Amino acid sequence: MTEDSLLPFDLPAVQRKKVTADFAGGLISSDGGLVLPRAAERRLGLAEALADCIREWRDPDRVVHTLPAMLRFRMFAIACGYEDANDCDALREDPLFKLAVGQAPESGRVLCSQPSMSRLENAPSRTEVGRLTAALVDIFCRSFPSPPATITLDIDDTCDAVHGHQQLSLFNAHYDTRCFLPVHVYHVESGRPVAVLLRPGKTPSGVEVRTLLKHLTRRIRRHWPRTRLTFRGDSHYGRREAMGWCEDNGVDYIFGLAGNAALHALAYQTADDLKVRRAEAGADRMRGFADFLYAAGSWRQECRVVARLEATPRGFDARYIVTSLAGEPRHLYEGIYCARGQAENLIKRHRVQLASDRTSCQSPLANQFRLVLHTAAILADARAPRCRAAQDAAPLGRVRHHPPEPAQDRRPRRREGRPHPHPLRLGLPRRRPVPHAGRAPRRLGTLTAGAACPRSPRPFNPQLDTDNLKSRHREGAERKPLRARNQPIKAAARE
Prior knowledge:
Elements lengths: L34 H10 L1 H6 L15 H13 L8 H4 L3 H7 L12 H8 L4 H17 L7 E8 L2 E2 L8 E3 L4 E4 L2 E5 L5 E5 L8 H18 L4 E6 L6 H9 L3 E6 L3 H6 L1 H14 L4 E9 L8 E10 L2 E9 L5 H9 L4 H12 L10 H16 L64 E5 L2 E4 L7 H12 L6 H6 L1 H8 L1
Parallel strand pairs: 1-7, 7-8
Antiparallel strand pairs: 1-5, 2-4, 3-4, 5-6, 8-11, 9-10, 10-11, 12-13
Helix pairs in contact: 3-5, 3-14, 7-8, 7-14, 8-9, 15-17
């Protein structure tokens, strides 16, 4: 182990001035970007607004770190790339963090430690967590100088994979993992987050979507009673309960709609004309639009549906949206609905670059509180109100490298982790599939109207099917149901 020692020589004087080399760092910090979120947080009053929602559970005579100071410390740490509460132990003496929280860099008291921050995250009750989530909506509304005439809100969920047995975590077959599916709501024009809500790892039901839209709308209308609201989302949110509530309360919507046979039949005439025109023109791709009124069996009234139809040499594809807005079908689909792809970039910024997927607490209340803190850290970013979130989306402090995410692969594959144990591991007999003699497996043909059309089965071959049938009967007499099912085939073979 080496020991530091003084220089073995003296540096020469310069113009009769003594030169001294000192390698002691002193009060140095690498988080210079804290100056911007500190000014934005003071302007919006984030820490005070969130602290008012939490009841002080500590003895006032023994309180060293106030709730606003602890919330500022946590939000600024997240904004600088320190997403774990463990980092508080290393940052509590940082001069810039002390200055941002409101203490003197040198003589000020050190900031709170990791145990104190962990107790804070688990302290709010269910009612207080609901108030914290509603406070984000209030902060969003107060950030506008005057009430806008109309606003459009993007609503979407994202996969938050868990690595334990946290409450509300469920296995999702689409993402092939145990996860949460938190809902993110963003303002379209400015890219600011409005609300984030932790959810179980399953598709939201119609009642759940209606409840979310109801509470969000009522909270916004407390500040802007005359503002026209429009919600935009994919087919997960195009539920009859949500659309019915929007119609009753004067809220516009534009949601994706899953295709079915009834929708394909209504768009058949336009689709057939589009395919003929593409074939006559020899074009590689031709797109058309149609709109009509449609009501499913469970809907109480007809709604306007816009169909995007596209014909290519490889087949035909159709996509549908349901909306209460007026306008040309092409503008509604391409100009309004397809623009919701920007919400994916905003969610990725929230989840990846600010690491809001660190929902590792056992209690869902603590995990929801963490989502509130990460959302407040984005609001504290002074650059967010002045530019789109897709530009300059990096954290303010440390520059972090995140490897690019692989492209989504929807091909069937073997799952890495099974939701249930394999039958062989439990000692259970493995079921053997019973083949159908005289029939070949049905193959899938080309895509027509967005669905897979099976081809017709192969023609019946008496000699081949009879040989296969004899070989299967030699295996044993336990296949009596199979012989009974194949008696008409044997009779046809004798003829």
